[in-house]
Amino acid sequence: MACRRPRGPARAEDVGCQRISHRPRGGAGVLASSGRGSAGGAGLRTCPRVAPDGRSRPRPAAPFVRSGRRRRGRAGSLLRRRCGVRRGARDDGGGDAGVDRVGPRAALRTKHQSPEATAAEAAGLRWLRVDGGPPIPFVHEATEGRLVIDEIPHGTPNLQAAVTFGRRLAALHLAGASAFGAPPPGGPRVATIGTAPMVNEPAPSWPGWFASQRIEPYARRVDIDVTEVCARIAELAGPAEPPARLHGDLWSGNVLWGADGQVWLIDPAAHGGHRESDLAMLQLFGCPFLDHVLGAYQEIAPLADGWQARVPLHQLFPLLAHTVMFGGGYRSEALAAMTAALRG
Q: What is the largest CA-CA distance in the chain?
């Protein structure tokens, strides 16, 4: 369920490494750091925007964020505005039987949203729970438009958690999927990414599926010509890979640094896809200790040569989806990503 965007006068809230000023769209930008340490990542010039799920999300200044410069400051995730939180909810059925919970008396979060969104999110959360993967909130109930999950206490990003997260994310992707575009078991064919529709239609190969299901439908809605990138998609896609098990909306706001020292994944748009798509989304809006996350990931599941050059191609989908929902500067960013993808 989407939260309402901030209204009223600007206010600043300390969010880990960032101090973000929340203003109506069009307010002044702020500088956000993607991490710290010897390989802390380049900074982003951002301005407050609204994420597909209604949460404030910074706008990237460029379609591809190259990390590597040393930055200082306390790392942290972006402000996460909660919707419909209620503590003490009962487990009325439809939960994840046989899966460990956060604790014996964990606080619970109740979300009220459409039945379709509830079914998609619950199926995604269950599907993403894999041996050796990142921790995922337990689903206590998913009935009609009511979803009850564990509330994860927030902690502070740190280097060891980032390294562990990179390795666990690789394990999640390696768990695989039945096909590109396949929804999680029990998930609906038509899901959402934020407030935009997202069709999960299985296909045998990634290039054609990505062009027809993740680029063309959104480009048509905002009148962006993607003829060339779709015609060259097989050439631009890189070496063939098997379908990966994707979170699907892996921006930093859905990467929760828990008080237990673990990195949790929340609010998925899960489906079978290319693992570089999740990693490109993670880079699009920045992530604490990003270089360390990517380095640890590659220890477990090395990426194919040329993956850095393919980042703009994979970022084209979320940028087009943002353009559909919010317009504004996202259109120019989508065009820049397409240009960069064609340039290779």
A: 55
